[in-house]
Amino acid sequence: MTRSFAISMNALALYAIAAILLAAFYFQLALGELPCPLCLLQRVAFAALAFGPILTLRHGPCPRHYGLVIIAALFGATIAARQVFLHILPGDPGYGSSLLGLHYYSWAFLCFAAAILAAAVMLLFDRQFEPAPSAPILRPIEKMAVWLVIGVTLLNCASVLVECGFAACPDNPVAYRLLSEPSEPSWRAVRPQIMIVTRTAVPTWLIGPKTASRSDQEATMKTLFVMVKCDLGAADSVGNIIVDKSPAQAEVYSTTGRYDLLVKASFNDVDEIAAYVQTFIHGIPGVKDTYTFVSFRAYGDFTVF
Asked: Cα(52)–Cα(49) distance, rounded to whole angstroms?
């Protein structure tokens, strides 16, 4: 492999790195999927992969440059493997969308493995390392590869600043911090809600014989329970939207298990229930799935606090 051919291959590697970072940007903007901290670290690793090829284009081929590629690829593969293991259990939907059946972090792991293999293969050709009288003279297409990677890396830095602001990035980002309007902290968003139900026993001599204490309208009301499954990191915002904008008075509780929220509301008509679930709840951004129960009769006297 000649020196000029090795430089061309390194320029091609820079175009491949830029394409990967641009593809990540496309999915971030087109699908609204903000990168998590592990995703951002993988982007850092892809940017670090460019150091070796850039040095090769500037100073010529050198084994140390390929060593830098291998180190960056090992770092990126470790981060990607960590995210793969976080979502490896059966039934886990994973983080973000998938491409050809694999999530982005799975593709990232394969790309880092390919980078290690490519750098190892390039090290097998000694002719490219022969001393040269001067630094390489780059063609415009090779110079463009360098500036393209630098530009995409700067865009990623700006994106991280807008997404995370000047604080630690959230585990499951749902909005750009610098573009979001500041709001007063809501206790519903930070305090877990626990529903405790107790049976209240009141002596009959104190209240007299038990009679119907509800009006005819209340007696005909149907209580609705909706289990809501949300996108990763969206449970708080979905719960606050339901409480603030629900057309009927609603109670929202965070839960453990398969679903994230439990919504309780009461209605007079079945059509109102259908409209509430299909139009209101399903129309909230971040709602992924629902499971609905309608109760017909309440037993005993209960106090909820």
From this structure: 6
Rounded Cα distance between 210 and 191, Å, is 38
Name the burial class of residue 39, with classes exposed (0-12), middle (13-18) and buried (19+) by CB atoms within 10 angstroms of its CB: buried
Tell which of 179, 214, 246 closes a domain.
Answer: 179
Residue position matching structure tokens 């057309």: 247
Q: Which structure tokens are listed for 70?
A: 């291998």
- The CATH number of the domain holding residue 207 is 3.30.70.920
Vertex 37 angle, CA 33 and 78, to 5°: 115
- The verdict on 213 and 69 lying in the same domain is no
Query: Which tokens is 105 given?
Result: 């972090």
From start to end of 189-259, where are the E strands? Answer: 197-199, 222-230, 250-254
- Contact status, residue 294 vs residue 222, Cβ threshold 8 Å: yes
Domain that holds residue 264: 187-304
Grade residue 210 by pLDDT with cuts at 50, 70 and 90: very low
Helix (H/G/I), strand (E/B), else coil: 102: strand
| Residue 261, SS3 per DSSP | strand
User: 6: closest CA among 135, 131, 115, 123?
Assistant: 123
Q: Are 209 and 78 found together in one domain?
A: no
- Cα-to-chain-centroid distance, residue 140: 38
How many structural domains comprise the chain? 2
Per-residue pLDDT of 103-157, as tens digits, reads: 888 888 999 999 999 989 888 888 777 777 777 777 888 888 888 888 888 888 8
